[in-house]
Amino acid sequence: MAETKPAARxxxxxxxxxxxxxxxxxxxxxxxxxLLFFAVTGALQLFSLHEAQPGYKPAxxxxxxxxxxxxxxxxxxxxxxxxxxxxxxxxAEPARxxxxxxxxxxxxxxxxxxxxLIASTVLGVWMALTYNRRKRVIWALLAAxxxxxxxxxLA
Length: 155
Hints:
The chain is mainly alpha-helical. The chain contains 4 helices and no strands. The N and C termini lie far apart (about 75 Å).
């Protein structure tokens, strides 16, 4: 009699999906702190709230966070050297132009996107902590995702 080989096992698609979902959760909680940071600081930058303007001086922490977002440096921008008084023109400062309606609308749309990204990220972290069996791993990845960028930025 001829021997027959046992049929090869087919991979279980449900197990593959569960593995992919778990990897997604782990990656998501690790990058969540950075994602929140960039969404918040990006929202501030939409309206130039991180830069001093006539009649407005942002808090130093807002300036530093904006500099970290843009240039990966947690420091205040160096102050610009002021021109000598004689070199300044005597004319009045020109009025700031208001942005075109489409630019303002785009800024508000991006603000909605940033706020939605913040809400979605917070909900994702909450779901990971609520519905995952490996809560210690989730907490460890969340802490690592927060501490690693902070340590690198402050080093």
